[in-house]
Amino acid sequence: MNIALIGAGTGGKNIIQAINDTDSINISLVIDTNLDAPGIILCKNLGIDYSQSIDDLNNKNIDLIIEATGNNNVAKLLQEKFSHKHTIIDSTGARLVMTLVNKNIDTLSQLSNHISIIRDTSNIVKTELSDISSSIDNMHGISDILLNSTQTSIAHIQDTDKIIQYVNKIANQTKILGINATIEAARAGQAGKGFSVVANEVQKLATNSEGFAKEINEILVKITDEIKTISAEVDKLKNLSQIQTDSSNKVQVAVDKLITETSI
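Above: the chain sequence. Below: its structure as tokens.
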């Protein structure tokens, strides 16, 4: 459908904006005596033909004429010259069209504002996700440090356990030595009485050393269990961090898509 628009004021401009992108409608000509009218300026920008004379309608293949001036003389002149050839929408019909167009423009403006808000919000979310991602990376680093520390501690405890085993070995040997000394003191009778006291003290020392080594070993076992618990919790933390990372990446993809779509 080829349309001619008479009157390029604000209302006419809105009509041009509303129907210019419609594939089935072609604006063939816009007429206004004021070449600085908003609609004429828009025509210049869009490459739409414009004129100051309604007689130029004769040079165009027009299906419909929209009279948007509201001027009775213009409406009368159009009826006299072109009503037998073209369908004419008078200013009353044009006002209805302009009302619908203005409503549509307001709706589009609101939609544009909403899209702008969504885009701004999406950018904020994107920034926050970036911060979360950085925090998760830091958590991974801390988890790795803790895991290395627990492994190092376990290695030290294992070294300590070797020392305790060596102490136990010395204690056992000392105890045997004390028992042998006691036996020899008993054989010596009265002459070995003083040596017997020393032998008893050696046995006490061996017994105490063995007891202390046992207590230390029990403490180290408890520490080892605690470190294993910490290590398990660190593994859980790493798993949770990975879940957060995966979730953040999915949200990031969705936000990027939203920003791209609302930018079109």
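The CA atoms of residues 8 and 36 lie 9 Å apart.
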